[in-house]
Write a structure and sequence with these properties.
alpha+beta, Immunoglobulin-like, Purple Acid Phosphatase, chain A, domain 2, 3 domains, eight-stranded mixed sheet, 18% helix, globular
Amino acid sequence: MPRLYFIILLLFSSHTLLAQTPSGCRGSPCLQPAVMQAATLFDRIENLYPQFFFPGAPTQSLWLDGSEVFFRQYPGEGGWGLATWQGGLWYRSADQWIRFSALDEGDQQFCGGRCLLSPAANGAFAGSVVLGAPTDSGIVLNFYAKEQSGILRVEYGKRGQAAGESSASVLLTAGQPVTLSLGGLEANTAYNYRVLFQPQGHAWEVASDMHGFHTARSPGSSFTFTVQADSHMDENSVVRMYQRTLANVLEAQPDFHVDLGDTFMTEKHQAPLSLSSAPATNSAAVEQRYVYERGNFATITADVPLFLANGNHEGELGWLKTTAGNDIANWAAQARQRYFVAPPSGGFYSGEGGNSARGAWYAWHWGSALFVVLDPYWYSGRTKGGDGWSMTLGAQQYAWLEATLAGSSAPFKFVFLHSLVGGLDGQMRGGVEAARFFEWGGYDSDNTTRSFPIKRPGWTAPIHDLFVRHGVSVVFHGHDHLYVQQELDGIVYQEVPQPSALNTNNAANLAREYHYDSGVVLSSAGHLRVTVTPNDVTAEYVRTWLPEQETSQRRNGQIDHRWVIKRR
């Protein structure tokens, strides 16, 4: 990659950070970062430019001309590397190391001046926290740090009060996720917490910044949640756009965030932002991609619990499973459960039970609403382009779905999945236009023959008919990379926009290609913000614009569309 192009990518602004070495030298030319400061800066650059600096390389060190060098070297043909040395940020291309900028200027550009002053510089936990599976009495925290080992615990308390309670301590090993559960919490209550970390080999603890979460809302309470779909992080995605969308999510402080899949992409793109379609070929490659996407989600997940739904590109596909289980479908399922939090079946959550449960389809109540996450891929037996009847929830998931909907008296019922079961064109596309067909609507693609009783013997009714019968309010789906709000038989079908889109003006083309013939159609990028009260639901399309894209008519965070449904 030519140096000029790289410099254009990484334009720095001027910023001065005074630092002092033991010799008394002051200013950025003398800045000597500690290993975790350098690692934090490297992590940020990796997250922004994974096509050059793919996450996973360890931070190494050596002494050169009396100064310690911290560096990472990356595999691949480009021979890329990153280093800090003698107050500078360096990069390696092919066989040449080039001083790119003063270190504090790099900190300002990539971290807003926070990497070198981060809590990690003092030994605090520098990894990521993923909140998940919140209940009326507890929550799960998943911790991961690439290069830190030690002991950590959590201090917590009700918001507005001192964080006077302490969890048990857990051992953190570099490069290995670890979970910690908090229990005995009060329902319908906001909590604050902070992480206390004791680095390996030290006797002292360092506290993180304060974060927060909310336990399950009681019926009749009002709350907000957010939804995204299809972040992809491929050649048609923009890292900065995605990060700004996630910052918009965090600003609203929702109770939780739902991701509708095509996020980890291991079935299509092993490496992020890649032009080539190269599926992951081993479990290590799958885990590396999950770690990368965890770094993106880290913008919100210390304060916003995350729920995941599988997409067709995650790899958890029935037609990729093998008898031995040593395949991408199982590697992806294991990575998702390892690096994120899968809601457990039984108690607060219902879903797939048994020892083989993946936590990929599940349901829970929150406030006056039922939330149902479905997986239309694990039990399906066809590749794209095949028979739509081969796409299925499977008998177990279908029976559970029917029982879950019938057993809930919640006035609002929300269903989340990546694509409708079957869809159109053999590509699982579409919204209400696709709702008539296959397992979802009962009809063959000829739009005349109703084969549901033959194709699904013993099943009560097609999925859409179940939804009508049991009062489903909204179906949130993704897959098609645009915003479309439609309605069919009293149910809102909401196609969720892409949070990271490179093309922000292609809604008409996508709608035509994917057979959206009705509804409100808008381009990406952005996310949905949904507010639920005892009497109504308000959904807002929160648009994302980068600073250089903003005009008097285009402002980041603006509401491009809003709809409301009332309690029936």
